[in-house]
Design brief:
The protein is mostly helical and 154 residues long. The chain is 64% helix and 8% strand. The protein has a three-stranded antiparallel beta sheet. It is globular.
């Protein structure tokens, strides 16, 4: 059956939302009920070595003020710590706490579980082909920046 062109982005967005919604449902069951999709992007932007607010905003594609608001909420929830930056007294350095690292570890495990569910439903070859085709079309090797999705969606 032929499909209309507008269906492709809707199907891709629907699959993305389904995966993210299920991730957050399971994270809530595992002790992280306050995490929201934007917080996951922010934790990724902070990275394992930490980052300044300016770096986080740049990585997310949002203003420093928007990054500060998100990081403030993450700090309030216990996922990040903020401290003066050792290289620049005007900057704030943000690091991920053990609670934040736990949420990232659990997220990775849940995504692996969700992928296994797709493999059970569609078969390993079809899932691998889908991933390969999407990587080709989005040029992941060349770096379509997916971490800045929150800023792009504005």
């Amino acid at each position: 059956m032929d499909r209309f062109g507008f269906e492709l982005p809707l199907l891709l967005a629907g699959a993305f939302r389904q995966l993210i919604d299920e991730l957050h449902r399971r994270l809530a069951e595992q002790g992280h009920p306050d995490l929201r999709p934007a917080y996951g992007f922010a934790l990724q932007a902070i990275g394992p070595d930490g980052a300044t607010m300016s770096e986080i905003g740049r990585r997310l594609g949002v203003s420093k003020q928007a990054a500060t608001k998100t990081v403030g909420k993450l700090a309030e929830l216990g996922y990040v710590d903020r401290a003066p930056d050792s290289a620049d007294a005007r900057a704030v350095h943000v690091t991920i706490t053990p609670r934040g690292r736990d949420s990232l570890r659990r997220s990775a495990e849940i995504f692996e579980s969700l992928r296994r569910e797709w493999v059970r439903e569609l078969g390993a070859d079809r899932v691998r082909a889908l991933e390969d085709d999407l990587a080709t079309m989005t040029d992941l090797a060349g770096g379509v920046p997916l971490h800045d999705l929150p800023g792009w969606l504005r």
